[in-house]
Amino acid sequence: MTKQQIWEWFANHSKQILDFLLFLALVSMGAFVKILKQVRQGAKASWKWFLAEAIVSFFVALLVYGFFDQFMQTSTLFTYVVCAWCGSFSTIFHKRMEDLLGAIFDKLKQLISEKKSL
């Protein structure tokens, strides 16, 4: 590719590139807020932990983006802000999911125990 072709590609896709950069910036800020909050609560910060928290935040933000953008068709900026907010609270979603799965498995264990005792 020549320089001219690269510049044309950027010119043709400038809106998508700016949207992606805005999404990245807002979700990064949400992940940063989440990480700061956890460090203040006593979490031990390491690169592995930081990377894991960032990945989970971005994953949750992408799920929220898909829902708000594709199904609810809200404005782009509002969608990105909700993505950042949900990404920063991804630990809460994770804990609630663990609670839900734990309850399901406990109920299955109880049902199996009841079937065996009959």
Automatic annotation (TrEMBL):
Superkingdom of origin organism: Bacteria
Protein name per Swiss-Prot or TrEMBL: Holin
Keywords: Membrane, Transmembrane, Transmembrane helix
Species the sequence originates in: Flavobacterium geliluteum
Membrane-spanning ranges: 20-37, 49-68, 74-93
